[in-house]
Amino acid sequence: MTTTLQVQGMTCNHCKMAVTNALQELEGVNRVEVHLEKGTVDVDYDETKVSLDKLKEAIEEQGYDVK
Ligand SMILES: [Cu+2]
């Protein structure tokens, strides 16, 4: 399924890469797209392999807040 997360604190390409890489390391994540201007992250994932909480946790571990 695809979900859109509201992520606070992403300001530059480094943030974009940090969030993208953290999510893509998780098993079950198929596609990640960060929209810096909007402060959102689209994630296409397999919910039988990874939970929404895990996605949020991975982003928070990088130092960003997820709403
Ligand atoms: Cu940055």
Automatic annotation (TrEMBL):
GO cellular component labels: cytoplasm
PROSITE patterns: HMA_1, HMA_2
Subcellular localization: Cytoplasm
Record's keyword annotation contains Metal-binding: yes
Main location: cytoplasm
Keyword tags: Chaperone, Copper, Cytoplasm, Metal-binding
Domain HMA, first and last residues per copy: 1-67
Pfam families tied to this protein: HMA
KW Metal-binding (keyword) present: yes
Ranges in coiled-coil conformation: none
UniProt GO molecular function: copper ion binding
Gene Ontology biological-process annotations: copper ion transport
Chain segments annotated as transmembrane: none
SUPFAM superfamilies hit by this protein: HMA, heavy metal-associated domain (SSF55008)
Family matches, as NCBIfam families: chaper_CopZ_Bs (NF033795), copper ion binding protein (TIGR00003)
Official protein name in the record: Copper chaperone CopZ
Source species of the chain: Parageobacillus caldoxylosilyticus NBRC 107762
Source species taxonomy: Bacteria, Bacillati, Bacillota, Bacilli, Bacillales
